[in-house]
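Support reply, case 0932

Customer input (verbatim):
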Amino acid sequence: TPRRAPQTQSRIPQLITNAVHEALTTHNGDLTAATAELQRKAIPDAMALLDACRISARYDVVGHPPLPDILRKKSAHGADDVWEARPNWARPDTPPGPHDVTALDINGAYLSALKTHLPLGALEYSTGNVHSRRRSGIHLITPPEWEHHSHLPNPLGNREEPGPVWVTEPTLRLLQRLATDTYGHLCEPPVIHASWTSGSTEHLFEKFRQVLRDAREKAITEEDEVTLEYVKSMYSKFVSTMGESNFNRAIYRPDWMHIIRSQAFVNLWLKAHKAHTAGLTVMRVMGTDELHIAGDWRGVFTEGRGVSQVKVKDIYTLPTGER
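Our regenerated output:
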């Protein structure tokens, strides 16, 4: 079957505009009711938007490849074997004197994380301490020792169990970067024992991400909270349901879900490192988007609602000896 002609740049964003207009019309301009309806249909609408963005794309989306056992849940409500390296770190010792701390929120963390190296096809098994930049997936590594816990979180997150662990591509690549001259050899390179990988691209969801980013920015500029909440629901639910969900049967890629989440955690870690190298005191790093800093952070980050900006979540004073 021949592929359909590409939709123009203007027609794809119109899918979002039309859905919002239809919901507002159906609910006679009731913003709350329209928003609730749009959030309910965010998953199928996100998949339709993805399909529109993928027309004539270079790579096909392989939605249901065979999966290795490490990506299968051990019970109905259990987890699989992949460690996403989610941070939950607080500085163990506060420097002397009181501190004014700003809790910053990283905008659109999962939206930005859609730009990451994703394996295209079925994952293939390999062994040995070998890594190809052209492939992506899940890797069994012995993580390096982390000796900077007093001022920076371990990029592996709050893992307490010793020994080898299955990590995602973003976590592996971050650890490899931190072992280089550029980062002052913060750790030794991780040792890879085995991998499940496929040929990869960083651009699989790039058009999709750009359309959602532009719609988000337009909604902020126009103070259109209905569209803003709709777009947020689309990208956040897209990520959360691509692993295994009755709400999204079009994609069953737990590897993608783990990789995108880990990319969000990596992006947050890099912001913490940026703050630290700029002379700020990093106090807490949590989840996908929360960074607590003491010092003049406005010289390092730009305040705003854009995806490359941060917004202030809270400001508090930390007495001596507390965190």
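We compared this against your earlier run and they match. Two observations from our side: Residues 302 and 309 are 5 Å apart (CA to CA). The chain is about 35% helix and 20% strand. Please reopen the case if you see a mismatch on your end.
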